[in-house]
Amino acid sequence: MPVVGKAAVLVAGSWGTAIASVLADNHREVALWTRSEAQARDINTRRHNSKYLPDAELSPNIQATVSMQEALKGAEAVFVVAPSSAMREVAGQMRAYLEQGTLVVHATKGFESGSLKRMSEVLADELPDYDPERIVVLSGPSHAEEVIGRKPTTVVVAAKCLKAAEQAQDLLINHYFRVYTNPDVVGVEVGGALKNIIALGAGLSDGLGFGDNAKAALLTRGLAEITRLGTAMGAHPPTFAGLAGIGDLVVTCTSRHSRNWRAGSLLAQRLPLDEVLSRMGMVVEGVKTTQAAYTLAAQYEITMPITSQLHQVLFEGKDPEAAVEDLMGRVRTHELEEAALPRS
């Protein structure tokens, strides 16, 4: 079947490459933007992204480029999959070449350091002529290694403009990649970002050999923390019971594909954070997200004990086992803090 349109994907990491593969399977011509000429040659000549997904053969519909202008020219949609630390820079580079009518979708799970802004807010800042209600967020339980292997995956796209969300849904949905829509942009972004903190904790717990009981408790109480902060920031609580909440939380906390889980397991070995990140060789969003969430919790006066203990482990030199002991030794409380049973 001939191609039916063009999409751009920025940048050529593992998740960006997986999204490009979905779009290519849906008969789109895909311009996959990278800063690296060597990576572009690898993709275009060998049909592999050797750095991130070396075992996957890429569709001929995908062509890598180092030219932002070339990537965006004629694109009906652009999928921005830059690390949170690079989102503002990439969005700024887009501004001069983004064509009127091009749909903007981002698939980055994190907050901007310093400003603590969500990624859709960063995009809105850098694209002042673009309607912010048409910025779409893509999130949900979706390891790149499984998506590019065409294993069944279900995700969510969120935008204030339903038509924009549905346009992204139409571009992506196929027999192995199911896409739901959701109007709760804040909830989808917050859930996708904060679950990485709990995944760090899950990897640390597993690395310390604490077992399934401990991890189940961590996920459950972690979801409570995510929901508390997300709701304070304006999210709708039901979102956290969906794909961008518990769905993404479960997959990130239990899978060998999860960077954040792997980083947490290395922390359990008492390795310094710098060494952990060096060994990972890829961005571990949960580290910076822990800093952001710790600050946001203080701003919104939200109790986030798991986040607080991980912040102490990551940035204050606290021993991981001591952090777990402090969590277990917290003052007694009701499970449903805001709906506690009356005392008789």
Tally of alpha and pi helices: 15
Distance between the termini: 70 Å
Question: Care to count the β-strands?
Answer: 8
Adjacency order of strands in the biggest sheet? 3-2-1-4-5-6-7-8
**CATH architecture verdict of the largest domain:** 3-Layer(aba) Sandwich
Describe this structure in words.
- The protein is an alpha/beta fold and 344 residues long.
- The chain has two domains: 6-183, 3-Layer(aba) Sandwich (Rossmann fold); 186-334, N-(1-d-carboxylethyl)-l-norvaline Dehydrogenase, domain 2, CATH 1.10.1040.
- Helix content is 49%, strand content 11%.
- Strand 1, helix 1 (14-25) and strand 2 form a beta-alpha-beta unit.
- Residues 338-344 have low confidence and may be disordered.
Can you summarize this structure?
By secondary structure, the chain is α/β, with parallel strands linked by helices. Helix content is 49%, strand content 11%. Strand 4, helix 4 and strand 5 form a beta-alpha-beta unit.
Layout of secondary structure:
Layout: E1 6-10, H1 14-25, E2 29-33, H2 37-46, E3 62-65, H3 68-72, E4 77-80, H4 87-94, E5 103-106, H5 119-126, E6 136-139, H6 144-147, E7 153-158, H7 162-172, E8 177-182, H8 185-207, H9 211-232, H10 243-254, H11 259-267, H12 273-280, H13 285-300, H14 305-315, H15 320-328
Parallel strand pairs: 1-2, 1-4, 2-3, 4-5, 5-6, 7-8
Antiparallel strand pairs: 6-7
Helix pairs in contact: 4-5, 8-9, 8-10, 8-11, 8-13, 9-10, 11-12, 13-14, 14-15
